[in-house]
Amino acid sequence: MGENIEDCGGALHGRCRLINRNPDVYMVRVPFMNISTSETNVYIVKDGDEALVVDTGAPTDKGAVVLSEAFEILGIDPSRASFFLTHLHMDHAGLVDRLVPCEAPLYVNKTDFDLMNASKGPQFWKRMELRMLEEGLGPEKTRLYCRIGHYGIGIDSFDAAGRDVRFVDEGDSLFVGRHEFKVVSTAGHTPGHQSLFHEPSGLFFVGDHVLFVISPGLGFRPDRADAMAVYLGNVEKMLGMDISRLLVSHGELKDGWRERCEWLIAHHKKRMERAVEVTRMNPGISGVEIIRNLNWNVPKDWDAISPAQKWCILESGIIILEHQTHMGTITREKDDRGIYRYHVAK
Fold first, then answer.
1. Which residues belong to any copy of the Metallo-beta-lactamase domain (predicted)?
2. pLDDT number for residue 308
3. From the CB of residue 135, how many other CB atoms can be counted at a distance below 10 Å?
């Protein structure tokens, strides 16, 4: 792997280390206990006096201390740095309001930015609740899970008022001194998820698009068409890129990124095949009943799963159903209660 690890200082207790030379890239492990992970990997690229920070971590006091100490040890003045957000979940954008000066350029994707703002209004959640009801979830659980979903959507990840927000998308470039980083669309985990690619070194700052520690969840949005096709297309796109190393946002850095991408594609296809199998065995089944039978890597007793995990499973499951109906593999129609009933297409 050729990893050049240098601890940046005892104050961070090993949470900051140099992982690449030319360009100089530091990884800062910002703590935050999430469903399946305990920290977010924030990356800092330096060239001379210029610096680019990729993501910020979650809005916790400990996380703020860790990242601010990293800035100090690395000699970074945040007001003179630039910041790039792979997506606007709070474990990636949650420290913007505390650590990113308003005058610092903040690069984000407009689709995710607009969704973050839309999710602050009641109409967004009315559409989300309606869809959960249509899949057969039930009113009480729909209200519970949608309250949890506010976190996953990224509501209030940061306040954009007065900030130097700059929208970037596929094909744009960011510069840090001598180094150019190209923006690559990796939508799927969120509709506007994006990554950074340094072509000369092959470093790919991949956010949550591909992870080794877990299979990334796919975020459902009522007005986005076939998120599964988008996600799989963006994973397959990586296979045609000259990537040397994935800089993931959660977990340790590992070799074998190509094999991991191929595994993720096969993993999702296997789960989609399972959705067809369950529907064939149970004609007229509801969406929630299909989703609960898709062999998730959780305890078999549905009641033993945390509400936050259930929300993530429901999102990903609905995306599978959307893809299968879009492809014409399964069909659906509403019963007299307004609940979708699924059948295998003839």
1. 39-250
2. 80
3. 23
